[in-house]
Amino acid sequence: MGQVMGSERKPSIIVSSYMGKTYEYQHEALHSDRYISVLENLDIEDPDVVNCLIDQRAVEKIALIPTNHEARSCLMHATSVPSNCWEAYTAQGDQLYPAPNFRYYSSSRNRAELLKVGVDDQIREKSAELEEIEQRLRDLDPMSRTLQHDLAQHRTEAGVIAKQLEKLRREDMELRSRADELRRFEGSEPTNIDTLEDALVELEGEVQSLQSKRSDAHKTYSEARAAWKASSEEVRKKEDARKQLMGTADAAKEKLIQADSELQKVKSVSATNKEQIAAAERRCAAAERDKKLCEQKIEKLIQEAAAVAPDRILTRRGISAITNEIEAIKEQLEEEESRTESRETVESRYAQAVERYGDMKDNVGQLTEFVKRLHDTMRERREKYCILCEQTVLRLRLIFSSTLLQQNFIGRLEFNHAKQQLHIQVKPSEQNSQLQQDLKALSGGERSFSTVCFVLALWETMECPFRVMDEFDIFMDMGKRRVSLEMILEM
């Protein structure tokens, strides 16, 4: 098995004896006018396979019900459960156990996993999966194009913002250089302070305005860059998903191609099988014609043989052996006729023997009928004997218990008719134990009193074999001796 299966999961091996015939399961099988069992739905020729399924899974007690609603309504109440129904399955694969322990298990599979009629169902499933993947690809293509367009637009905006930022940087550098030049010429070239202050204020305002524009541009650039990164990440994810779907689609296409090739192989094998079946049917028709001719010949020979010997004898011997035996019998008859009495005398003696045989057969039949009636009578007497034993035991227990109550004792008699055993258990009144004790565990007086009660119960119930009780009271105290004598005198 390891060489054949390799690393795959190995199947279970069931060891069972081959009986050659199917179990007598009809009285334990499912009985229902509306539903059939799994065994009735299976077409199995080998009786040992049927027996194995019955032993392993009890398929004769598993019902098949079409719908889930009907299965629940039928198996939820004990009154509506079919006879001998242990389990049920629906067409959807749901599993149910009937009341009083009702359980319902839904199936998580929508198709057969192991036993399949052909590969057509699998091809249809793979084709549906391929169509679903292609539809998902078609749905993702517009989204991918939109994201790529947005990404290109964001890249264009980022380029424009970068150019504006570069322009602002150049303007800032120019303004800084002008400010440095003004600072260098501040001491050497006398200038009007008011004019310079006004120019400084104007330049500071321009610097602040440019810095605010620079910060706004930088902020816009950061936002555009973040949006571009998010769009790039989303596009990358969509691209990965598309590649994964394409890989799945390729695998599904390969499986579809493989299934198609298997289908072509199956079709070719099916065509070959059809041709072989047609040839076999032609051979069967020719064999059927030959069979009819042989039957006609056999019927003719049977009629000829019936004219000679009406009673047919079944045998496995060949024709030559039977012919030789007939010749030998004829020779023996001729020899016997020449050596013994005539044929008429032998026939008369044979008729007398047949008559005596008939008389003896009638006597045997009468004796058989008498034995049958005797057997029925003995069975009836045994049944009545068992009833008499039960009634006698019941009366003996009642009288034994009532006699024990004279001393407030509690006792019980246990009979085992199969083993011919009797167990006497008595609990004296002064003991607090809840368990009754055997006579061996009692004192001498208690045991003697219990024995007297048992003997008196036997006297009252049936013809007792005890006639004399010698020294039965030697271990009793005065109270038990007095009560015992009074009970004996009353009997």
Account of the 3D structure:
The chain is of the alpha+beta class. Among the domains are: about 15-110; about 130-175 and about 205-305, no CATH class; about 400-460, no CATH class. The chain has ten helices and eight strands. The chain has helices at about 1-5, 40, 45-55, 70-75, 120-185, 195-310, 320-340, 345-405, 445-460, 480-490; strands at about 35, 60-65, 85-90, 95, 105, 410-415, 420-425, 435-440. The strands form two sheets. It has a five-stranded mixed β-sheet. Strand 3 and strand 4 form a beta hairpin. Helix 5 runs antiparallel to helix 6 (about 195-310). The protein is flat. The two termini are about 85 Å apart. The relative contact order is 0.03. The mean pLDDT is about 80.
How many individual β-strands?
Answer: 8
Please outline the major beta sheet.
5 strands, mixed
The proportion of strand residues reads 5-15%
Tell me the number of helical segments per DSSP (H or I, 4 or more residues long).
Answer: 10
Family: Belongs to the SMC family. SMC6 subfamily.
Subcellular location: Chromosome; Nucleus
InterPro entries: P-loop_NTPase
Protein name: Paramyosin
